[in-house]
Amino acid sequence: MAHVRSLFFKQGPLTEIENKAVQASKLGRPSEVIWNITNRCNLLCDHCYMAADANAKPEQLTDEETIDIIRQMGESKLPLLFMSGGEPMMRPNFWEMLTEARKQDIRVTISTNATLIDRETAKRLKSIGIGYIATSLYGPEEFHDALVGVPGTRKRVVEAIKILREEGVGVAIKTAVSKDTWPHVYDLIQEAKDLDAGLIYLCDLITSGRSEQGEDNRISAAQWRELADFILKDTLETIESGEKSLEYDIGAMPSFVPYIAEKLVELGYDLTDTLERLKIMTACPVGKGLMNINSEGGIMPCQFAQDWTIGNIRDTTFRQASDNLLELRHTPVTGKCGECEYLHICYGCRTKAWHAEGNPMGEDPTCMLDPEFQRSERLVRMAAPCCAPGACS
Ligand SMILES: C[S@@+](CC[C@H](N)C(=O)[O-])C[C@H]1O[C@@H](n2cnc3c(N)ncnc32)[C@H](O)[C@@H]1O
Ligand code: SF4
Ligand code: SF4
Asked: Separation of 92 CA from ligand 2 center, angstroms?
C-alpha cells in the first residue's frame, strides 16, 4: 500500500490518518485492521480473492463477538478500520458495528460494491461520520457487468458514487489491475477524477480465491513501470499547478515505492522524512501493524492471504493477536528481496512470496524494477536500516 501524495509530498486526503498509523506502528501498536466481516455477497466477481458468494460462512462471528472485538480495538487505540467482505453492508449488524466503531473513535472506511447505497444510506453514513467509501470499478459497462456477474451493476455503482459525493461522503475507487482490466486503467483514472473521487486504489492481481491460478493474468513489470511514470507525472503536474488532484494508492506492488523514490531523488526532491517513515511502515505493511480478520475470526497478516493464518480471535485477545503479528518483522527475508538495498523501505510483497513459494519471507516474484534499474548512491544510503532519526540526509 502506498499513497503517493501523502507519502512523497506530505499532502493529500490521507496524510493525517497515515501519520496516526505510522505513529501506532512505531509504538508497537496495531495501526490498521482490514476486517472481512462477512463472506456473503450479492455479486460474483471472476477475480474475488475471498471467493465470496451468496452464503455466509457457517462459523461466522456472532453479533456479540463483533461488538466485543470492536471494543477491544478501541481499548488498543486502533486508528483505522476497513470494513470489507464479501459485501459488508449485507451483514445484518453492519450498522451496529459501525456505530460502535465510531463510538470507540476509530476511523472507518467501508470497502463496498456500493450496490446497496441509496440516498438514505448515504445520509446515514455521513451522519455516522464515515469519511470514505471505497468502491470498485473495472471498466466500461458491458465489461464491468460481465466481470461482476450481475447485469446493471455498473450503472448502480456510478449512481451511488454521485449520491455519496452530493451528500459529502468521500469516495475512493478501486480496481484490480490485470491483463483483463489493463486496457481500461487510464480511462478509470480519468473517470475517478470526473466523479470527484479523492483517491484511486490500483491493486495488482492477487492469485487466491477465484483467481488462484491467475499468475498469467498479471500485467508485466514494464506495464507497471509505464503506469508508475504516468502517476508520477500526473501527481507532479497537479501539485505544481495547485489544482485539486487525485491521490493514488498502489496495492500489492511495494517495489513501486523505491521506483518512484529514485525518480524523485533524480529530480532533486528531499526524501528524508519519507524514508524515515518508510523504515517504520514499509511499503508492504505486513508485520508493521496491519491485521486482517476474516468473517470466522481467522487472523491473518494480510487480507490477500487467507490461508496464511496465525490463529483465531476467539482464542486470544485483539491486543495479543496484534503483538503476535508484529513479531513477524523480526523474521529475516531471503532470496532477491533479502539481498536488496531497498528491503528496509520496500520489504517486497510478503503475500506474493507466500503464494509463490509457501514461504512468506521469500522473494517477491513480481518486483517491478528492471534488473538494469539504476540505484543511486544517495537513495541506497538513505534506505539503509542504520540511520538514527534525522540522520538520513
Ligand atoms: C473483496 S472486495 C470486498 C468489498 C466489496 N465487495 C467490493 O468488491 O468492493 C475488496 C476489493 O478487493 C478487490 N479484489 C478482489 N479480488 C482481488 C484479487 N484477486 N486481486 C486484487 N484485488 C482483488 C476487489 O476488486 C475489491 O475492490
Ligand atoms: S470482489 Fe467484492 S463484490 Fe466482488 S464477489 Fe468479491 S466481495 Fe463480492
Ligand atoms: S527486490 Fe524485493 S525488496 Fe527489492 S525492490 Fe524488489 S520487491 Fe522490493
From this structure: 17
Summarised one tens digit per residue, pLDDT across range 299-340 is 999 999 999 999 999 999 999 999 999 999 999 999 999 999
Q: Can you spell out the DSSP letters for 137-198?
A: --SSHHHHHHHHT-TTHHHHHHHHHHHHHHTT-EEEEEEEESTTTGGGHHHHHHHHHHTT-S
- In this predicted structure, the answer to whether residue 166 has a pLDDT above a threshold of 70 is yes
Residue 134: pLDDT over 70: yes
* C-alpha cell recorded at residue 207: 492469485
Q: How far is CA 2 from CA 169, 260, 280, in A?
A: 22, 11, 13
pLDDT the model gives residue 222: 97
366 C-beta closer than 6 A to ligand 3 = no
Alpha helices for the chain (secondary structure H):
4-9, 15-26, 63-75, 94-103, 119-128, 141-148, 153-166, 185-194, 221-241, 256-266, 272-280, 318-326, 335-338, 350-357, 377-382
Atom 13 in ligand 1: residue holding the nearest Cα: 176
Which amino acid type is present at position 271? L
Q: Pick the residue with more confidence: 121 or 393?
A: 121
DSSP for 205-251 reads PP-SGGGTT-GGGSPPHHHHHHHHHHHHHHHHHHHHHT---PEEEEE
Q: How far is CA 265 from CA 190, 254, 296, in A?
A: 28, 18, 45
Contact present, 131 and 170 (Cβ < 8 Å): yes
Pocket flag, ligand 1, residue 49 (CB < 6 Å): yes
Question: Dihedral sign, CA of 319, 324, 327, 329?
Answer: negative
Q: Which residues line ligand 2 (CB under 6 A)?
A: 41, 43-45, 48, 50, 52, 85-87, 113, 148
Residue 334 Cα to ligand 3 midpoint, Å, equals 11
Instruction: Express each pLDDT in 50-80 by its tens digit.
Output: 999 999 999 999 999 999 999 999 999 999 9
